[in-house]
Structure formats: structure tokens, C-alpha cells
Design brief:
By secondary structure, the protein is mostly helical. It is 67% helix and 0% strand. Helix 2 runs antiparallel to helix 4.
Amino acid sequence: MQNPFFKFLAELATRLFSKNPKFFDYVQMIALVVGGLSGLVQYLQSTGVELPKLFDIVGNVNVVVSSVVAMILAQLPNDSSSTDAK
């Protein structure tokens, strides 16, 4: 039975665990660093450390969520050489 939903899930799982192009590796690393810095700033602010106003831009929940979304979306593309042309 070729259910479109199961085909979608199989393709999604294949893309999530496949090797992706080098450009998207860089996108993932940048998103990881920005998300990590944002989390660090949020942690320091929650412990009472007084940081300059510049860090308020980076220490935002929206930045963390955007970084996670960017890391997931950067994992979805895969090399065209490894996929079958249909």
C-alpha cells in the first residue's frame, strides 16, 4: 500500500539522516553557534548577571527558536547525486 503520508515520512526520515551539502553544514554550524550564544546570554541574565544592552538583541527566545528551525531546515536538503531523479 503506497499511502502518501507514509511516503512523506519515509522521505523525511531519509533526508534527516542523509549527508547534506557543505553549504548547509556551514548554515547548521552558524545556527548552532548563534543559538548557543543566545542560550548563554539568557542563562546569564536569569542568574542576575548584568550585561550590556547589546546582548539583549542576542539573548532573545526568538533567536533560539530561529536557530533550531535553521538547523532542522539545513538538514533537509541532500546531495542530488545521492537521490534518484524521478
